[in-house]
Amino acid sequence: MDKRKFIRLEILLEVVHRREVHSSVATLTLTKNISQGGVCFVDCREIDNFSVMDLMNLNIFFPFDSIPVKIKGKVSWIKNYDKIDEDGRNRFDMGVEFLEVRDEDKQRIEQYIKGKLKDKACT
Question: Does 3 fall in a domain?
Answer without folding.
Answer: no
